[in-house]
Design a protein that fits this description.
Helix content: 55-70%
Number of strands: 2
Length: about 120
């Protein structure tokens, strides 16, 4: 996990419980390792600038994953005379992945961590 719960609560200002964050941050870290092609090392995490970006991205990604899991495909919900609408599962999955990638790109692209080419 790239950012621990203390970092999440104090520096990022997150609101998830310890249990919710731990679960979501583990998934977020795995996703970030994938989209950065395992370029996030201990040296990068120790760097003040790049490490901060990775940790903040992990926190933001954990929040996003938790939010996406809570919605569970719902596109609309009405309370009076209860009504719920769901997105097509493939459309929903594509939208989730797109949003996760956009978030990672926003935080990490300027540091070359998401570069797909050969260095």
């Amino acid at each position: 996990m790239y950012a621990d719960y203390d970092y999440y609560r104090t520096l990022y200002g997150g609101k998830l419980s310890d249990e919710e964050y731990t679960f979501a941050a583990a998934r977020a870290s795995e996703y970030l390792a994938s989209v950065t092609h395992d370029r996030i090392t201990e040296d990068i995490l120790a760097d003040d600038t790049t490490g901060r970006a990775v940790k903040m991205c992990c926190c933001a990604m954990a929040d996003l994953i938790q939010k996406q899991e809570q919605r569970d495909g719902k596109t609309a919900e009405k309370v009076g005379d209860y009504s719920v609408s769901y997105a097509d599962s493939s459309t929903n999955q594509t939208a989730r992945q797109k949003r996760r990638y956009e978030l990672a790109y926003m935080y990490l692209s300027r540091y070359g961590l998401m570069f797909r080419g050969v260095e």
